[in-house]
Structures are given as C-alpha cells and as structure tokens.
Write a structure and sequence with these properties.
Radius of gyration: 25 Å
Number of helices: 10
Structural class: alpha+beta
C-alpha cells in the first residue's frame, strides 16, 4: 500500500493493493455425487485466532485503500451535516402517557420519551445510549401491560439477534427483578400480570453466533418470578426446526399460536380462554402452504387475513369451533392490489394495500363495510396505523425516497389526516424528484423501478447510478427516505430501486415467481433494470454501482458473477453467498422454504448454478467490489462474506479492487449505532464514487 493518491490524479490511478495471503485447505464435499471443493472452510470458525488474524489483515488492506481516497473526509463531514436533524417517531398512548422515539440528530440510538399530553413537556423514559459507551446496545420490542403500569422490553448487544428481557415500573421508571435470557425471534404479548415470549435453550458459548438454532420454545413469564419458573407454553419436540410465537387478542379472550417451518407459510392454533373445557391449543388453520394471520376477534369468531385461494390476500371470518374452509365467511374479498397488512383501532380495520409498490390505506368496519380511504400526502410509504379499541385517533408515519418521515394524526370518525410533526432537514426536498418506470425482464414480465435524483438531470448516458434491490422473502421494496442515499443524489447520482420478483409488491404470485427454482427471475429482473437504464440513456456500464444486503447481498453476488461486464461497482452487504451451506448456521435452515436446500438432490443443481461463491471464475475481470459484513452477525454469519471475498481476490484478473470491510461490535444491521452507520456510509460512498470516476463537491 505504498502508492499515494494526489487529488488531481485520483480518477486515473488506483492505489496499489497487496491482498493478504489466504491459505487453502483440502476440503471437498460430495453433493449427491458431485464433488465441490471448499478451500476456505476454515474461515467458518469465527472463534479461531487464525480467522481473527485474517479479519485484521483484510481490514487493514481495506482501510489503507480507503484512506488514500482524497475526498473521503469531505464525504464524512457532509454526511454528518445531513444526518444531524431531529428524527421523531409517531406517539402511541399507553396508560396515561404518550410515548414516542426521538433522535436529536447524531445520537447513536433513538431515545424513548413520554409526555402526559400531546405536545407536552417531554420526559426521558428509556435512553439506550446510556447502556453502552459505544452506543452498541439497542432497544428492541417494547410492550406495555394493558393497564399501562409496566413495560417489558428487549435489548440486543453489538447487533446480535440474541436478546435480554427486562421489566420496568412505568411510574417510577425502576427496573423490577425480572430478567430474561436467550430470547430470540420473539414478541412480548401481555396477558394478566405477565406476558408470553419465545426463546431457545442457552447455546454453547463458542458457537452462540454461528450454531444452528433448534427447538424454539414459548413461555409465559409471571411478573416477579425468576426465569426458571416461567411456564412452558409450547415446544414441538418432533420438529426442532420450527419457530413459534403466541399473541393475545386485545380483549385477552384468545391465545393465538403461530408456528412456521421457515420464512414462508404458517400454521395457526388457538385457545379460547373463556372456554374452561379447552385446556390446550386447537388447530385453526393447518400449515404451511399459506400465510394466515389473525387480525382480531369479533366476539367468539376470528378475523383472519389469508392468501388461501387469494394470492393478493383477503379477510375472512372463522368460527374456531368450526374452522373448516367451507365455513369461512369472506369479509373483504381479494382485490387486484396486494393486501400487505390489516391493523385495528376503535373497532375499525385499516387495510394497507400496495399499488405498484406504494401504500394505499382503506378503513372498514368489522363486518366488511367500506367507510373511506385514508388520504395520504403522496406516492410513498405509510405505516403505523392502528391503536386500541377506545382510541378515537392514532398517528402514522409517511415517507418517500425524497421525503423524510413525517408524522400525521388521524381522526377515526371523520377520516381526516393532519400533519403532526415534520423534520427540519439540512437540504431542500423540493430540489429532488422520484419517478416510476416499467421495463421488460428477460421473460417479458413488466417490472417497476423507482428513480430518484436531483431535478434537471440530463439523459446523456453518463450519469452515475446506484441500483438497489432485495427480491425475496415476501418483503416489499416501497418508497423510503435514506440520508445516505440523499448524499449520492446530491452529488449528481441517480438512486434506483427495483421492485424485483420474490417480494410481496404484487402478492403471493409475485413472491413465488422469485423463489426456489425460479430464483433466477430475480437476477434477470435486476440485470434487466441495468440494461434498461443504459438503453434509455440514463447511464452506461462504467457508471453503474449495485447494492443490496442480506438476501440482497446474494442478489449482488449473483448478478456480478453472471454479468461482470455490466457493472462497475458491486456492494454486497451481509450477503448469503454460500448457497450450499447456509442452512447449517443459526437460523439459516428457515430460509430453505425460500431457496431450497443442497440437502435435496432436486434442489442442489439450481442452487449451485447461481451460488455467488461457486460461480466466481478465475481469470475474470470483476467489478470494483466492497464486501461488507460484521463480526456479530448471527443472522447471515460472516463466513459467507469471508469465503466470498477470499475467493474473489484469488479469481479477479482485472484492475478493479476487491475488498472486504468487517465491522466490529455490529451485526446484521438492526440497532447499528449512528456513528457506525456514518462511518460505513462514508467508506461505501468513498469507494463507490472513486471507482465511478465521480468528484464529489
């Protein structure tokens, strides 16, 4: 790393890079008669001193490279200015207080405040910033008892999915003696003087961030009891690879048990607590082919959102005593738009639909009578609808790609929305615009894409573009504001978000068209987006950067290996890169319903065909690549990124850098402190803009 950069030569000269020596081992696996080498298997051991030394060496190479980019410091300074504005969430009333989250600007974690009246004097209720010096302890689920006297909450440390549970006396803000350990993938649902939660048994210390999670259990915790006295509510001893959780209807009449074999498909069970004869859960909806969820009970019946015989979802009423399909009553039939979710307040249902990936919300009564549409400020994403039965109003949040989240108050009786709070930002939103375009994918499917940029852009084929996508797990990509993305637009870039198959934007049919053996459709959609932007004169292949995280990291890995000629910069973050072994770590087994598994002879071939790790070819010129991951990522273990980066560095024959940035004391992304977010954004944009030939102001 001896070469230095001079500002005037920055665009013409890459720093010299000497990559760490990464040893290879003679590990070969036999997949149904096909032998596959895994020479970097040793990097899966995140506890070994050898792996730690490799991480340190790779991070040094990456930081040495980034430190020589002349405008890196200026990027950070501007990001800190853009980031530094108050961010306030929507207030929710519990007991006699209104609670809301607020970050003053650059605080590592948002603080939970409360006030006795709307807009009244704020009082700090819980400040996660005081729980760790570096701001790496994050507040997760916060759940208040029905009477508002107690608050149960979960904390995660350094980005891990493992959480600890605590209970606070709301009036005194004093912690009770209650303490829960090894909570994971859990809600906190109150009933009476306690709550339900989900956990695993304590893991082996050396593999707690990588070992397979098995036998998810549901417990009931009575206030004041030690955890060992918690009542075991449910465990499936015959199926260790299932997740389970219990929810409670607002009137505390029904317990709803939801079990799943992965990220798609649920089975629902119930207990009617008014029925003294029912002492165990009874089957409500057999799994796991559909995605039902209970909205609420209407007396002794249950309102359910389901995609059974309705790929775009519908609302039905089910009598638990006679749950047969022939007895279901349709309350709100399926529409051509996808029904993303249903929330409740004041005896009303609020149905949130997606119209070409933008939110539309409609108010109904429990009998299915349409009352009115909730008028939103524009084409964007609205969330937070719902409240309690006694509420006359509630608050929701609206955002778009160029509009920071604003909070609106909604009057249930009149259906009127009014602006409650709007952030005071350090830029002019009116200078930017978003438009939606549609293009044809490889099989002729029409795919939407959002393009956001500074007004006045010229279609000269030379604009820098960052294309973002996800494409999986029934997760929609809807308009949302990001400070970091704004910086790229501010510097003349186009931020493009592709609505890929695999998401839920057009219902379950859209999801299924991008999963299992049809996963290649997702990559074709993303590649088609880049080709469209070139053909439409927005950009050219030397000006395109691509980015995605988690399943989106897989997307970037697959696209850069399939079409290395089409992209100049690739930014795969916390990606699923080894499609043959993902199911062997933590919760990876749950993704087999989405991807398939190499354990099955009929699914192995298509996984091998697109697995990013296994499709890197020696002697190929790959895009400038910055892989990002974190040492505490126990969702997608960092071994995915480690092995991919080592293989990429060995295979790349071109001049582009292939680096990996490994964050410490951080995980998959949730709860990451602001300081780390800004540091990472600085490095990502410095790398991207330098390799796209940009000169940020």
């Amino acid at each position: 790393m001896s070469a230095s950069l001079i500002a005037g030569q920055a665009m013409a000269q890459q720093p010299a890079i000497i990559y760490p020596e990464t040893k290879k081992v003679d590990t070969v696996d036999d997949y149904h008669g096909t032998k596959i080498a895994d020479p970097y298997r040793w990097l899966e051991n995140d506890h070994s001193e050898e792996t730690k030394a490799w991480v340190a060496a790779e991070n040094k190479v990456t930081q040495d490279y980034l430190s020589q980019i002349p405008f890196r410091d200026n990027i950070k300074k501007r990001l800190e200015v853009l980031w530094n504005y108050p961010k306030t969430g929507a207030p929710v009333k519990h007991g006699k207080y209104y609670y809301y989250y607020k970050n003053d600007g650059l605080q590592n974690q948002a603080v939970l405040y409360r006030s006795a009246t709307l807009g009244g004097a704020p009082e700090v209720f819980l400040d996660p910033n005081k729980l760790s010096a570096a701001g790496t302890t994050a507040l997760g689920v916060m759940s208040f008892s029905k009477d508002g006297k107690y608050a149960a909450y979960l904390l995660s440390k350094a980005g891990s999915d493992w959480q600890e549970g605590f209970v606070m006396d709301v009036e005194t803000k004093q912690l009770l003696s209650d303490k829960l350990d090894w909570v994971k993938f859990s809600s906190l649902d109150w009933r009476g003087n306690g709550f339900y939660y989900s956990r695993y048994d304590a893991p082996i210390e050396t593999s707690k961030l990588s070992g397979k999670n098995e036998f998810h259990k549901v417990y009931y915790h009575q206030l004041g009891d030690p955890q060992e006295k918690d009542a075991l509510i449910y465990v499936d001893k015959a199926h260790p690879l299932r997740n389970a959780g219990v929810s409670v209807t607002e009137d505390e009449r029904f317990l709803i048990l939801s079990t799943s074999e992965g990220t798609s498909g649920r089975e629902l069970w119930y207990r009617d607590l008014q029925n003294q004869a029912q002492t165990d859960f009874a089957l409500l909806i057999k799994g796991f082919d559909y995605e039902p969820d209970v909205i609420d009970n209407d007396g002794d019946k249950l309102l359910v959102r389901t995609n059974h015989d309705a790929p775009n979802y519908k609302v039905v009423l089910i009598d638990p005593l006679h749950p047969e399909l022939t007895n279901w009553k349709v309350i709100v039939p399926e529409k051509k738009e996808a029904l993303e979710g249903v929330s409740i307040a004041n005896g009303k249902m609020f149905l949130s639909y997606l119209k070409d990936a933008a939110t539309r919300v409609y108010q109904y009564d429990y009998k299915g009578k349409y009352e009115h549409e909730v008028k939103l400020p524009g084409i964007g994403t609205a969330s937070g609808f719902g409240g309690k039965k006694e509420d006359k109003e509630f608050f929701y949040t609206y955002t778009s790609f160029v509009t920071p989240p604003a909070v609106y108050k909604y009057d249930i009786a009149s259906g009127a929305s009014s602006l409650y709070s709007k952030p005071d930002v350090k830029f002019t939103p009116a200078d930017y615009e978003t438009k939606q375009v549609f293009f044809k994918s490889a099989d002729g499917t029409s795919v939407p894409m959002f393009l956001s940029y500074k007004k006045g852009i010229q279609l000269n084929g030379n604009n820098p573009v960052l294309i973002y996508g996800y494409g999986g797990f029934n997760i929609p990509m809807t308009p949302g504001f990001g400070v970091s993305n704004l910086y790229f637009m501010e510097q003349g870039g186009i931020y493009a978000v592709v609505v890929l198959r695999g998401g839920s934007e057009y219902g379950e049919a859209w999801h299924k068209a991008g999963m299992l053996d049809k996963k290649q459709n997702v990559f074709n959609d993303f590649i088609g987006a880049a080709e469209y932007l070139v053909q439409a004169k927005y950009t050219n292949s030397s000006k395109i950067a691509i980015r995605g995280g988690s399943n989106g990291g897989l997307l970037i890995g697959a696209c850069m290996t399939q079409r290395p000629d089409l992209f100049k910069v690739a930014l795969p973050a916390v990606g699923v890169m080894d499609m043959l072994r993902f199911q062997k770590f933590t919760i990876g087994w749950a993704w087999a319903v989405e991807y398939g598994s190499s354990d099955h002879a009929d699914q192995f071939p298509y996984l091998l065909k697109y697995s990013p790790l296994h499709n890197l070819k020696p002697g190929t010129s790959y895009p400038a690549t910055l892989v990002t991951t974190a040492d505490h990522d126990d969702r997608v273990v960092p071994a995915h990124s480690f092995k991919f980066a080592a293989t990429l560095q060995a295979a790349n024959a071109g001049p582009n850098p292939t680096l990996i940035r490994i964050e410490t004391q951080a995980g998959h992304g949730a709860g990451k402190p602001t300081s780390k977010l800004i540091d990472e954004a600085t490095d990502v944009w410095a790398f991207t803009m330098f390799n796209l030939g940009m000169q940020p102001k």
